[in-house]
Amino acid sequence: MRKKQENIRDLLDFIDCSPTPFHAVNEMKILLIQQGFSELKESKAWNLLSNGKYFVTRNDSSLIAFIVGTKTQDASGFKIVGAHTDSPNLKLKPSSAYDKNGYLQLGVEVYGGVLLTTWTDRDLSLAGRVIIKGKKRPQPKLICFEDPLLRIPQLAIHLNRDVNEKGLILNKQNHLPPVLSLAGKKNPNKELLEKMVAQKIKCKPEEILSMELSLYDIQPGSIGGANGEFVFSGRLDNLASCHAALKALTLSKGKDPMTRVIAFYDHEEVGSDSAQGAGSPFLKDILERLTLDSNNSREIFFRSMANSFFISADMAHAVHPNYSEKHDARHAPIINDGPVIKCNSNQRYATEGVSSTWFETLCQKAGASVQKFVARTDMGCGSTIGPITASNLGIRTVDVGNPMLSMHSIREMAGAHDHLPLINVFKEFFRP
């Protein structure tokens, strides 16, 4: 029990420190360096050692880490766990500040499939990346305001009498801009935010070149339920999967002929089509550099792909007690009952018979129970990086994830007893 609690507390600390993908990747870098991993640059030559530990980042929001196999040049293949660093949220527009009816507000864009109503009446702050002038080139700076700076206030029920019967309907342009301050002569709208940012990162306002800022809920994650069986937190989808894979790789010991890899992408929630998304050649570039040198033909790479396996890890839909009709009754995952294998005949998930059976065997070895999810035949489902990776690399793939409720809410819910089993399954996967 103590070990489970330690892993959950570590997970929540990781999520609390990761309000954006930039912060998540930075936290991963810190842990990897502590565990003896060295950072590589895509623009530099690599001199890799057998059983060496390395990581690479792209755009400061995607990361690939690996332990080099002892027989990489013999096409022994790769063991890969993939996940994504981004979560649905509200992002500031470039020229965001404006006055309206005596309030200073910030214009926002909706990023991904946000459950919009959950963002109202919350204590919100800002975090992200700021680009400032440097001596030779622009410099990125992480920023995170920990104070409750913003709020999206709901309309009082006295002015919206039907809200409980018809539901809260929000216009994305008109109803989502948060309130930052009261407008006035002392707070010119084009200057206040820049001054706050400059003060936070210790630069002059005129040195700020651009800002990539997102809203986030400042309430920390917590363990809840009558018996401490639940986890309540933002961004469980999908930082929980990232954390499980990261812990498994860093805990992996011994030499393995196969190269062990974790691949964490940005922009999954908006389709993965970016230079640092799963649709990019990021992973392929790294795997090619690991297999090819001046003495090897591309046949080595192709054979390595045929000998590899990819686990796409993304949170799964637990059955909801108030909406159980939304699930197929025979494929209704339960929180705290083990990892979920996700299947879809239309290839929204990449799972097939061989990969499903292989993952079930892996769970048995790790002592973890396993569940399966298939959407109702008359309903669609989401997708993951699994089909994208499988189609790009031709690699055998299985889609899995721990069950959760309130997916894409500002505050999500999962099982406190599910996280350690997933770590153990990934550890078994990486076992030499």
Question: Would you kindly provide a written description of the structure presented here, covering whatever features stand out?
Answer:
The protein is of the alpha/beta class. It folds into 2 domains: 2-87 and 234-430, Aminopeptidase (3-Layer(aba) Sandwich), CATH 3.40.630.10; 89-217, Aminopeptidase i, Domain 2. Helices cover 26% and strands 26% of the residues. It has helices at 2-16, 21-34, 163-166, 192-201, 236-251, 282-291, 299-306, 353-366, 385-393, 419-430; strands at residues 38-39, 53-58, 62-67, 78-84, 89-100, 103-111, 124-132, 139-144, 179-182, 208-217, 222-224, 230-233, 259-265, 309-313, 316-317, 340-343, 371-374, 396-401, 403-405, 412-415. The strands form 4 sheets. It has a 9-stranded mixed beta sheet with strand order 1-2-3-13-4-14-18-16-17, sandwiched between helices. The chain has a 5-stranded mixed beta sheet with strand order 11-12-20-19-15, with helices on one face. A 3-stranded antiparallel beta sheet has the order 5-6-9, with no helix packed on it. Strand 16 (340-343), helix 8 (353-366) and strand 17 (371-374) form a beta-alpha-beta unit. Helix 5 crosses helix 10 (419-430) and helix 8 crosses helix 10 (419-430). It is globular. The mean pLDDT is 95.
